[in-house]
Fold:
Amino acid sequence: MADKPGKDKGRIKRSAYDKALGLLARREHSRRELKTKLRQSGYEGDEAASAIDRLGEQHYQDDDRFAEVLVRSRTSQGYGPQRIRAELKTHAVPDERIRELLDTAEVDWEASALDQLRRRYGGKAPADHAERARRAQFLLRRGFAAATVRRATHAEVDDAADEID
Structure:
């Protein structure tokens, strides 16, 4: 058997701009994320930075738009504000902008937490204190504040008690 030529043999390497544009065609990316992906693909720092700057000037890449999309996406997936805040920080979104995005998100965090409990555990009330603690840990891992978790887990028990009466 003859050796097959490698996948990349005979191909011209795309420019960092083309690579980044291809990534942005699939979904929004932060500047930091694009820089990391370009570096992992073997592009030099100057070429990557230049490509990202050009994409920003052309409004193909925008960190504000990226952050807004991420907040909408994560809230619709049932994540809490602390988890969303942590993810935004990994993309170098400034704290002030994160606060602004979460304040304007118009999300009822308690209702979202209750919805997550219903999806995960159905309408059944927790059988015991240990089960209530497991449910609380579930919500905490999803990024809900402790006060919200406390209200949601107690509200779920109260709601179940109201249905029995």
Summary: Residues 25 and 60 are 9 Å apart (CA to CA).
